[in-house]
Amino acid sequence: AAPRARASADASHADVVGALPVVYRGPNGTPLLDMIASPADIKRLAPTQLRQLAMELRHETLCAVSQTGGHLGSSLGVVELTVALHYVFNAPEDPICWDVSHQVYPHKILTGRRARMSTLRQKGGLSGFAKRSESPYDPFGAGHSSTSISAALGMAVGHKLNGISAQRNSIAVIGDGAITGGMAYEAMNNAAYLNTKVVVVLNDNGQVSLPTGTQSAGGVGPAGALSAYTSRLLTSKPFLDFRSFAKSFSSLLPEEIQAVNKRIDAFTRGALQGGTLFEELGFYYVGPVDGHDLANLVPILENIRDRRDDKPVLLHIKTEKGYGYPPAVGAPDKYHGVPKFDVPTGYQYAGPKSRPSYTSIFAAALIEHAQDDINVVAITAAMPGGTGIDKFGKRFPKRTFDVGIAEQHAVTFAAGLAIEGLKPFVAIYSTFLQRGYDQVVHDVVTQKLPVRFILDRAGLVGNDGPTHHGSFDLAYLGCLPDLVIMAPSDELELLHMIATAYELESLPSAIRFPRGNALGLEAMREQLGYDISAMPAKGTALPIGRGRYVKRADASRSKRVALLSLGTRLAPAMQAARALEEDADFGGTLGVTVADARFMKPLDMQLLRELAAQHDVLITIEEGSVGGFGDHVLHVLALDGALDEGKLRVRPMVLPDHFIEAGTQPEQYDEAGLSAPFIVATVRKLLGKSRVLV
Length: 694
Fold this sequence. Notes:
By secondary structure, the chain is an alpha/beta fold.
């Protein structure tokens, strides 16, 4: 049935594509790009050929991403900049650090990875981000934001200490979104003090949050005054051309030339332009510059490269996200991250969504609570679309707060709201909450403030890979006293946990759930035994620290195994339980209990003691790293004396102690050993019925 269904879907897509107008026609070939095996080959081109190279590179990027999916708009927006940087600078000796690095696809193509672009974000393929182990042209790995200036500064100081700074430049490329992160300003504050040859390229495309235009208490513009400031710089000044730049750049040239141009410099920079924030931080500010005008951009970069002074430089360029591809220009949010798509028409091959995502279920439930309580507020850190807060913002814009890429501020801001009697829900990806950990500990948990943390993308996330996995939250939150931690096994449990967090006024709480679609009613009935015909709009608050039995072992079976799951591994645990009880090797003697812990903190002590006393084997299953739920269970059982006589065999099943690379989520959970066949194999091994899984 599956192949026929796929063929039907392909035919349906073909019908749609055939009916759409062609909006993009690329070049007939890529003769210049075909000559480029490394950046050294770009330097052999004449400056007049660079525009054609950029056109071919943009087309190649489109074709590659159309086959794999990935971050498209940001990569299209930096094609000219990428060509210019590799034409002017001498990478990898001059390290180029890409902030976030979701825009590095053109860079990958120019640095010897063109032939592997078909493997982008696939298992065993190229990473979707810069990755040090992948290429010497990726000097610093990324995936999170606001790190590039610090890394480039460290490399520049390293050049100076190694006595090679005269021959080297260190470049950071950072967007107007990432520069809202406080770490970027910490680095800039330090850069002038250290007086090193750092070049910061501020790529300003007006896209701070995703999606841009989300309604919030601050309006619909990009989050924050810093974005407004850079926008004013762009709109209050004409684009800087090379001739004007050459006059104003004299302060970094030899002294005799400085003297000649001193009065011109004072006029052009002081009287006409005025000072900038970046100059106050000690940078030489250059801009704004059209980031798509190679004829202007290249000579400006060459002069920055050849400066005699070690004063750091900030080059402010204006680019357009999705530049050169009409569908992406017209809908930059829709083409930020894309599935496979048809290049000529822009049609995206998104599969049918028969089941809602956990994110959308959370958003709908939060809206339901907010309708009844004006104290419910929502906070996100530049990811309203990814967390569902954009939907909340449409209904309650004055109660929606997008703080920009500022997770530390988001957490402490929520703490202040809680003090004033509001009910803040802070929706942040699990991996990004790591950036605000001290604030979680110091500003929320130690004060027992009822901030509700919503950790989206918990567990393994698929094609974005290691930088975006939500692997560690159970470990880094589980060690904190007075924090209630919940993980739903399905969408109904998620509704109940949102209601639980809503009603919890005495302690902070956290709910973690994975990326992707929920189970759906049919699977909930068939796999988990629910007897429901429709989902309620809101859940019912759960008793704090109370788990549940989903399936109890037949008391007549002589061997008994308990599977204790936290989170959405419950469905695979149920599949494993059925397979084990039907396993002929056990001859009908094996009974399996499946329990849903619901809470990591506080643990259900009664449930744990019953499972330990009534079963020969206890296996815990979670979508988290070592140090999480399973370790807490083992700790409790050890202190309780349940392991003293050696009768109970306990095994925690967790994510392996290494980073899992990009792939689909099913591929990753197989690699992690957390799918149903691996649960079966673990039980069989403990009961002396080993079977090797390949």
